[in-house]
Structures are given as structure tokens and as C-alpha cells.
User: Which sequence fits this backbone?
């Protein structure tokens, strides 16, 4: 899936992460819980989509 972002002069995104989520994004691995990093990445993606105008390109049929 391709997407196009219109930044409109915005240059910051605010995301609330737990300490474990922040550590997981730096490369620390949580062997007992692989969902920590995935959750942090989802939060960042969702915040990015809310902050910026994201247009998803769907393949033409």
C-alpha cells in the first residue's frame, strides 16, 4: 500500500509511550513480550496519521 503525506508546515508529532515501548524502539528486546515494540510502532503510526493529512493510494481496478 502506498500513501502520500501532506505535511502542511507541521514538523512535530506527539506520542505517549510507556518506558518499555520507548526502550523497545531503541532496540532493546523484550523476549517475553514481542508486542511491546509493535504497540509502540502502532502508536507512532496512528499519531502520524492524525497529525498529517494521509491519503492512501488504492490500486485501480
Assistant:
Amino acid at each position: 500500500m502506498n500513501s502520500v503525506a501532506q505535511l502542511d508546515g507541521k514538523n512535530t508529532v506527539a506520542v505517549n509511550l510507556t518506558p518499555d515501548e520507548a526502550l523497545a524502539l531503541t532496540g532493546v528486546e523484550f523476549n517475553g513480550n514481542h508486542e511491546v515494540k509493535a504497540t509502540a510502532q502502532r502508536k507512532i503510526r496512528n499519531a502520524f496519521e492524525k497529525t498529517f493529512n494521509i491519503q492512501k493510494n488504492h490500486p485501480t481496478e
About this structure: The two ends are 14 Å apart (CA to CA). The CA atoms of residues 8 and 37 lie 29 Å apart. Strands lie at 2-6, 53-57. The longest strand covers residues 2-6.
